[in-house]
Write a structure and sequence with these properties.
GO terms for molecular function: beta-carotene 3-hydroxylase activity. Keywords: Carotenoid biosynthesis, Membrane, Oxidoreductase, Transmembrane, Transmembrane helix. Belongs to the sterol desaturase family. InterPro entries: BETA-OHASE-like. It comes from Cellulophaga tyrosinoxydans. The protein has one domain. By secondary structure, it is mainly alpha-helical. The protein has helices spanning 2-32, 34-41, 54-72, 78-100, 113-126. The radius of gyration is 17 Å and the shape is globular. 64% of the residues lie in helices and 0% in strands. The chain has 5 helices and no strands. The N and C termini lie far apart (43 Å). α1 (2-32) crosses α2 and α1 crosses α4. The longest helix has 31 residues, at 2-32.
Length: 149
């Protein structure tokens, strides 16, 4: 029974992170921490790294904190929460940074309907280079209007 609960907490956390990604992108990255996110929309430097990469560190600290709480205290469900956050971060990095932005040259030839829809939706978001007016959505739940056959 504990294994089932552990897995449900892990999967629930992964799905909640989709909402958190949307929320933090819309209200934090395009809000009071725009100073860190704006170079992702309009590159103003020659470095491979972006100030936007700081968000990866922020979420990694949150994930590690939950895992550490699971290891060091009675808070055993810190493990599945922390690992769910970490798994979402890995999936996000794979889809957003590797697949869409090609920070590593992988998956360049993916042309199925889902891949095309995700690329199209992200392109529409990056059409706006300013703080306002950028349509925000998650990685998994992209609006259906972007999926065309």
């Amino acid at each position: 029974m504990n294994t089932i609960i552990w897995i449900l907490i892990f999967l629930g956390t992964f799905l909640i992170m989709e909402f958190m990604a949307w929320f933090s992108h819309k209200y934090i990255m395009h809000g009071f921490l725009w100073v860190l996110h704006k170079d992702h929309h309009k590159k103003d430097h020659d470095s491979w790294f972006e100030r936007n990469d700081a968000f990866f560190i922020i979420y990694a600290v949150v994930s590690m904190s939950f895992i550490l709480a699971g290891v060091k205290t009675w808070f055993w469900y810190g493990w599945p929460i922390g690992l769910g956050i970490m798994a979402y971060g890995a999936a996000y990095f794979l889809v957003h940074d590797i697949f869409i932005h090609q920070r590593f040259k992988l998956f360049r030839n993916a042309n199925n309907w889902y891949a095309k829809g995700v690329r199209r939706a992200h392109k529409m978001h990056h059409k706006h280079i300013g703080k306002q007016d950028g349509e925000c959505f998650g990685m998994l739940f992209v609006p259906f209007k972007y999926f065309k056959k």
